């Protein structure tokens, strides 16, 4: 078996594509697609779905992005600890 990861084409579920080839495949397959319009995930453009809300609950790229944003917010809004004498721990006396 191949060492490559495979994915399923969002436009034709019978297509099993190596993930590194998926962007090019989607462009070609989209031209022949006659179903309901699919929305493009802004966290990974190869994700094409009918219901974006449901997709974002499971999308690893979205979950990674919000996790990163949460860490950044926590780091930028961190309040410096105060010692018992009222001085900021990071400020020299």
From TrEMBL:
Keyword Zinc-finger: yes
Species of provenance: Drosophila gunungcola (fruit fly)
Protein name: CHHC U11-48K-type domain-containing protein
Key words of the record: Metal-binding, Zinc, Zinc-finger
InterPro entries given in the database record: TRM13/UPF0224_CHHC_Znf_dom (IPR022776), UPF0224_FAM112_RNA_Proc (IPR051591), Znf_C2H2_sf (IPR036236)
Pfam families according to UniProt: zf-U11-48K
Domain of life: Eukaryota
Ranges of residues in domain CHHC U11-48K-type: 6-33
PANTHER family, per the entry: GAMETOCYTE SPECIFIC FACTOR 1, GAMETOCYTE SPECIFIC FACTOR 1-RELATED
GO molecular function, one term: zinc ion binding
Metal-binding in keyword set: yes
């Amino acid at each position: 078996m191949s060492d490559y990861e495979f994915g399923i084409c969002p436009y034709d579920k019978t297509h099993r594509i190596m993930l590194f080839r998926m962007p090019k495949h989607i462009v070609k397959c989209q031209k022949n697609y006659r179903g309901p319009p699919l929305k493009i995930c802004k966290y990974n453009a190869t994700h094409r779905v009918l219901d974006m809300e449901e997709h974002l609950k499971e999308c690893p790229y979205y979950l990674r992005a919000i996790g990163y944003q949460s860490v950044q917010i926590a780091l930028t809004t961190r309040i410096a600890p105060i010692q018992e004498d009222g001085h900021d721990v990071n400020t020299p006396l």
